[in-house]
């Protein structure tokens, strides 16, 4: 209860956004140690103690009516949970602990309970309040040895929201005995409507992931109406004893105001059907043929092997680090025992979403082992990893509002058939003939190198980007500032790009930045940073540079909806077998709102 209630008040803090450990201390997310000592556990505990004379529990209560006390409502929570347990003998793993009451209630004759937590404060409260036979271990779910199998129940009571859903599902599969049960009781998001990142798991997504992974849902009990009065009760207690709380706990009044506002927001979310409280019970079925797992750095050699087998060339460790290691990134793997047979990667990309800053994810290195590619059903590896990635990362309330990639038409149609993607654009290629080597007298070219970091060049590049961004207020476009140019082009571990600044002769006016790539196909404009009106001039200089470097042609790839801006510079145009997707799997900006709005070039892809 206390963890969720505080979510909104700290939602903007970056270090809390990806909390992954069970019952992680909420006080750790606060600005200073002094505030952390009193916020929020001590406040709730003291308020309840003043209101009822006792405060042994700090979790949601189930209120059968508005006349009962918090203690009685919390007892109802325990009794409901206990009624869902199988008869003894029974081995239970409790992941995340409250003050020890739940563990004590679970410790019945012939019940063997193992409790774990990664919260030191929680462990101390457990020692003070739990019955002598109850014990807790300071350990995370991730580090439990899978040899400790044979549990009849793996239980998450108001702790699952701090652990990645895949970790919950995979560990439960490993630790449960045949037909064992996974029980998850606590808060969930019921729908996501805003771009703000939510810290609660989406209920329907957890159910779908569990069922795809080898569980069957045997109960989905909606307890939202019974749990929501918890917020009202706390608001009343804090209001009644406000001055006493400030005095006894040495609080700043603003801390209580913030806490009250957080409770009101959460109460409203329950009323609006955005948040809810539920008890889920799953039964383990036959172990699935494949299992999903977030790819860890120490498993990247498996990725290298699959990459080489799929694309017939090698990904170097330096390229992996450049793509996945240096930025916020995520990668899902599909495993058949110890063999990686599929991979779905994503790399964070800062964008302007119709003029507003947002974060998108660029889909990268989607591959399935050739021996498994024929399985393109909703139970196959491609569907399993794509659906899981979209559920985890893309859409309202997720780390990334939208995603993009560059699949061909065949792969696009497979994803559309499964309801995963919708098409929002296509790529075209425009080709020009090179020009002579004679200079252009009104403008001049200046090469940009990594050594320019301490010069005026970064400011000039950022100014060019700002002018381009002003022209693309009604578009979706990846940020092209100096930091991006440095990472994407100047510091690429294997590819060489020619980055050129175009300026007027006899003056300081900058016209734009060109990024060119030379290979067997010719000279390619892979990126462009300038006001759109400067495209003809930059194409002219690119044609000259192609001629200077002995290339047979100059070409550029751009989303079809912006091709006309390049066509004014002449050239011939052809459609490419490259589509631009957007998620249709979860609640996200609609396909119609995104269609024909992306500005994407070759440089926006990770493979050119």
Automatic annotation (TrEMBL):
<dbReference type="InterPro" id="IPR013216">
    <property type="entry name" value="Methyltransf_11"/>
</dbReference>
<dbReference type="InterPro" id="IPR016181">
    <property type="entry name" value="Acyl_CoA_acyltransferase"/>
</dbReference>
<dbReference type="Pfam" id="PF08241">
    <property type="entry name" value="Methyltransf_11"/>
</dbReference>
<keyword id="KW-0808">Transferase</keyword>
<protein>
    <submittedName>
        <fullName>Acetyltransferase (GNAT) family protein</fullName>
    </submittedName>
</protein>
<feature type="domain" description="Methyltransferase type 11">
    <location>
        <begin position="93"/>
        <end position="184"/>
    </location>
</feature>
<dbReference type="Pfam" id="PF13527">
    <property type="entry name" value="Acetyltransf_9"/>
</dbReference>
<dbReference type="GO" id="GO:0008757">
    <property type="term" value="F:S-adenosylmethionine-dependent methyltransferase activity"/>
</dbReference>
<dbReference type="InterPro" id="IPR029063">
    <property type="entry name" value="SAM-dependent_MTases_sf"/>
</dbReference>
């Amino acid at each position: 209860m206390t963890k969720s209630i505080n979510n909104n008040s700290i939602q903007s803090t970056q270090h809390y956004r990806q909390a992954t450990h069970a019952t992680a201390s909420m006080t750790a997310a606060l600005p200073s140690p002094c505030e952390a000592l009193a916020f929020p556990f001590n406040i709730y505990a003291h308020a309840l103690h003043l209101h009822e004379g006792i405060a042994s529990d700090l979790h949601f209560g189930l209120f059968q009516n508005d006349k009962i006390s918090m203690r009685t409502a919390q007892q109802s929570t325990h009794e409901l949970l206990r009624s869902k347990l199988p008869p003894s003998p029974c081995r239970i793993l409790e992941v995340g602990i409250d003050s020890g009451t739940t563990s004590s209630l679970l410790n019945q004759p012939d019940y063997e309970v193992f409790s774990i937590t990664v919260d030191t404060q929680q462990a101390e409260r457990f020692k003070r309040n739990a019955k002598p036979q109850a014990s807790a271990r300071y350990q995370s779910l991730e580090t439990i040895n899978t040899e400790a199998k044979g549990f009849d129940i793996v239980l998450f009571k108001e702790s699952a929201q701090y652990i990645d859903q895949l970790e919950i599902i995979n560990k439960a599969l490993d630790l449960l005995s045949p037909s064992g049960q996974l029980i998850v009781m606590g808060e969930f998001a019921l729908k996501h409507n805003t771009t703000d990142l939510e810290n609660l798991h989406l209920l329907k997504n957890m159910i779908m992931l569990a069922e795809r992974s080898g569980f069957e849902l045997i109960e989905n009990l909606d307890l939202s109406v019974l749990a929501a009065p918890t917020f009202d009760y706390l608001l009343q207690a804090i209001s009644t004893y406000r001055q006493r709380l400030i005095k006894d706990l040495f609080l700043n009044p603003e801390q209580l105001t913030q806490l009250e506002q957080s409770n009101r927001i959460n109460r409203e979310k329950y009323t609006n059907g955005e948040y809810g409280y539920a008890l889920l019970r799953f039964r383990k079925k036959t172990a699935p043929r494949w299992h999903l797992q977030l790819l860890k750095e120490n498993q990247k050699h498996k990725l290298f092997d699959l990459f080489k087998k799929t694309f017939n060339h090698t990904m170097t460790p330096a390229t992996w680090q450049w793509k996945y290691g240096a930025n916020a990134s995520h990668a899902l793997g599909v495993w058949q025992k110890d063999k990686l047979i599929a991979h779905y990667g994503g790399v964070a990309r800062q964008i302007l979403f119709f003029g507003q800053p947002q974060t998108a994810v660029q889909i990268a290195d989607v591959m399935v082992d050739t021996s498994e590619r024929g399985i393109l059903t909703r139970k196959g590896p491609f569907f399993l990893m794509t659906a899981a990635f979209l559920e985890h990362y893309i859409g309202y309330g997720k780390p990334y509002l939208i995603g993009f990639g560059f699949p061909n038409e065949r792969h696009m149609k497979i994803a559309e058939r499964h309801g995963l993607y919708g098409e929002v654009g296509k790529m075209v290629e425009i080709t020009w003939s090179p020009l002579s080597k004679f200079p252009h007298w009104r403008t001049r070219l200046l090469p940009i190198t990594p050594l320019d970091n301490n010069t005026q060049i970064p400011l000039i590049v950022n100014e060019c980007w700002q002018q381009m961004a002003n022209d693309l207020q009604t578009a979706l476009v990846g940020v092209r500032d100096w930091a991006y140019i440095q990472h994407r082009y100047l510091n690429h571990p294997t590819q060489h790009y020619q980055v050129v600044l175009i300026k007027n002769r006899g003056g300081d006016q900058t016209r734009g930045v060109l990024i060119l790539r030379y290979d067997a196909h010719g000279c390619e404009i892979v990126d462009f940073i300038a006001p759109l009106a400067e495209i003809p001039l930059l194409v002219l200089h690119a044609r000259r540079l192609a001629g200077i470097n002995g290339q047979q042609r100059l070409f550029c790839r751009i989303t079809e909806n912006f091709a006309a801006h390049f066509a004014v510079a002449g050239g011939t145009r052809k459609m490419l077998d490259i589509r631009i997707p957007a998620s249709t799997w979860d609640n996200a900006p609609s396909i119609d709102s995104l269609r024909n709005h992306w500005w994407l070039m070759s440089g926006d892809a990770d493979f050119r």
